[in-house]
Design a protein that fits this description.
This protein starts with a strand and ends in an 18-residue tail after the last strand. Strands 1-2-3-4-5-7-6 form a seven-stranded mixed sheet, with helices on one face. The chain is α+β, with helices and mostly antiparallel strands. It has a single domain, classed as 3-Layer(aba) Sandwich (Aminopeptidase), CATH 3.40.630.30. The protein is built from three helices and seven strands, in the order βαβββαβαββ.
Amino acid sequence: MITVKPTDNLELINQYGRENAAYLIMREEDKEVGFISIAPFKSTYEILDMSLNIDKPLKREEGKDFAPLNANELGLVEILIRAAGSYAFNKDSWSLSVRDKSYFDLLKKFEFTPSGDFLVLYLNKIFSNTCCCNTKKDTN
């Protein structure tokens, strides 16, 4: 079973030098599979860094070929994005963003759209309203 949870390890959290950063670790049983680090920035949560424990980088370095990810690896990236989105949503943010252009090619596959110097994912695209308060109740 895969889980993604924030760590309280201040060394990991503080390595990005951003106040209120969160470092979410993905594990499968006791094995660390990857991580995503996010921090609040204006009205969004910005993705600072992310990685999977695979031989392919998630970033596309300028001037280098990008090794495509297989379906399983893309699924793991989606889990990281959803976990970060859930964390941000629970902190009253409506979007995730990234300004590190080396992630743009990858994140465009997950409904991130351009907005100025950023790519933005509006969280309503991955979390639908689950409230049933607008449905008519059976009065019989």
